[in-house]
Amino acid sequence: MHVFDYDVLVIGSGPSGQKAAIAAAKLDKRVAIVDRRTMIGGVCINTGTIPSKTLREAVLYLTGLSQREMYGQSYRVKDDITVADLAARTQHVIGRQVDVIRNQLSRNRVTLISGVAKFVDPHAVMVDDGNGRPTKVSAEKIIIAAGTRPARPESVEFDERTIVDSDGVINLERVPRSMVVVGAGVIGMEYASMFAALGTRVTVVERRPKMLDFCDQEIVEALKYHLRDLSVTFRFGEEVATVERHQGGTLTTLHSGKRIAADTVMYSAGRQGLADELALDAAGLTGDKRGRIEVDKNFRTAVEHIYAVGDVIGFPALASTSMEQGRLAATHACGEPARAMHELQPIGIYTIPEISFVGKTEDELTDSRTPFEVGVSRYRELARGQIIGDSYGMLKLIVSPRDHKLLGVHIFGTGATELVHIGQTVMGLGGTVDYLVDTVFNYPTLAECYKVAALSAMNKISQVDRLHDEY
Ligand SMILES: Cc1cc2nc3c(=O)[nH]c(=O)nc-3n(C[C@H](O)[C@H](O)[C@H](O)COP(=O)(O)OP(=O)(O)OC[C@H]3O[C@@H](n4cnc5c(N)ncnc54)[C@H](O)[C@@H]3O)c2cc1C
Ligand SMILES: NC(=O)c1ccc[n+]([C@@H]2O[C@H](COP(=O)([O-])OP(=O)(O)OC[C@H]3O[C@@H](n4cnc5c(N)ncnc54)[C@H](O)[C@@H]3O)[C@@H](O)[C@H]2O)c1
């Protein structure tokens, strides 16, 4: 006779919740996962990562943007791109992904419970699926994977049509002629890129003096150059005071007094954790004012048998890291040995062009007074770069002149988010730039840029070593 309904109950079916549930099921636990019927797969599948990445693919294909180097600046696959054209691809992918997730859960015997969970005691939640008869579900271990929602300031009149957040932007009725993007974080810059590519006149308003300051600044400069070329205007060091809805469009007023008229405003100024909707106090827990939950290195909260993973615990708040947190938390909760997550984690930013990196930036190394040498390879000097018509892409390797270890890899351009894993593997296995110099790459590929950049870094290191030896 079991004391609890389940061994493990997971709240939220986003990337962290799914992986937690499946990891626990693989360890022969009786597992349930709870989420709203319309949100299977979480923010990741329904409103965030997957819709935005699919939309980007549709935009790149339909605008023909990446082919214009070859076929001229007026090249387009479709002249009048409608929201329906874009939505068709997004809906197709979301539908397929939800099917995949349902199937994975069911073949691992994870019970999917529909509804919203709220704690009633430290071992039980009440699940309300809107039918007026909430059900109590208890479990020995509970894993909170509740994620986040877009932050919505009071001073903004959201209407889901002209003034939207990043959830609403995928449901716009038409491609706007002009748009204000508030917040130059990752979400803001990814959507600014997509709408600029569609021909929308985009103005980005960002409170800080610069954007994406965790990235290589040379690459951020290159991105800004590309976006300005697509008619994006940047307003850095400016804060939005109010956003109003009018008959003929929206009016955004900045603290500096500037006023910007636009068809649409997209607010992408951070996200709020959903811990505040879980009645945490019934479990003996508290969230912070941003709706997040504190955890230890094993993702355990202040209450021993309750874990929290994914965006609800804050930084880095990525689908990639959330999945791994879920798996590790479930492994620990089930009493199995779990290794810590590898400290090297790649960042992929799906702007147009895309950015990806792993390891340190030049600025970080300079601040910590760590010597480094840089090797750069440009796609336009690679046969594959010419073939695909990418003349702006680049890869930068940051190398230690002392032991030749790779300290960072920064990529801008086609395939950046895939290519980064080569560098990540070399770094993760403690390899040096000598491996990249000596190794043979397929030709013609973009991966070849690793060898070109490695040779460039080694040439500089050898030159310094020769001078040093002479001395
Ligand atoms: C526009 C956008 C683009 C992004 N692009 C990327 C990207 O390219 N790469 C990347 O790695 N990351 C990206 N992210 C981040 C990524 O989506 C998140 O890091 C990831 O989804 C977090 O996963 P999670 O498991 O914490 O849960 P989420 O995906 O946030 O899902 C949480 C789930 O919990 C459910 N839930 C909440 N409370 C309850 C409750 N009380 N009862 C039942 N269910 C509940 C919600 O309904 C939801 O389904 C993007 C995010 C956004 C918004
Ligand atoms: N490719 C990816 O990995 C990816 C893509 C999208 C989102 N995400 C994740 O989603 C999360 C949320 O992203 P985000 O971009 O919404 O948040 P963010 O916090 O990264 O960026 C918000 C930006 O808005 C600015 N801002 C806030 N209020 C403002 C105001 N009133 N006026 C002007 N500027 C203002 C902030 O200074 C900040 O730069 C992040 O954790 C991110 O990692 C990841």
CATH homolog superfamily of the largest domain? FAD/NAD(P)-binding domain
The proportion of strand residues reads 15-25%
Q: If helices are DSSP runs of H or I spanning 4 or more residues, what is the number of helices?
A: 13
Output the CATH class name of the largest domain: Alpha Beta
Principal-axes shape call: globular
* CATH architecture identity of the largest domain: 3-Layer(bba) Sandwich
Rg? 24 Å
Structural class: alpha/beta
Distance between the termini: 81 Å
GO molecular function: dihydrolipoyl dehydrogenase (NADH) activity; flavin adenine dinucleotide binding; NAD(P)+ transhydrogenase (Si-specific) activity
Subcellular location: Cytoplasm
Main location: cytoplasm
Function: Conversion of NADPH, generated by peripheral catabolic pathways, to NADH, which can enter the respiratory chain for energy generation.
Summary keywords:
FAD/NAD(P)-binding domain, Enolase-like, domain 1, 13 helices, binds flavin-adenine dinucleotide, binds nicotinamide-adenine-dinucleotide, 471 residues, five-stranded parallel β-sheet, single chain, 3 domains, alpha/beta
Briefly characterize the structure.
By secondary structure, this protein is of the alpha/beta class. Helices cover 33% and strands 24% of the residues. It folds into 3 domains: 207 residues, FAD/NAD(P)-binding domain (3-Layer(bba) Sandwich), CATH 3.50.50; 107 residues, FAD/NAD(P)-binding domain; 118 residues, FAD/NAD-linked reductase, C-terminal dimerisation domain (Enolase-like, domain 1), CATH 3.30.390.30.
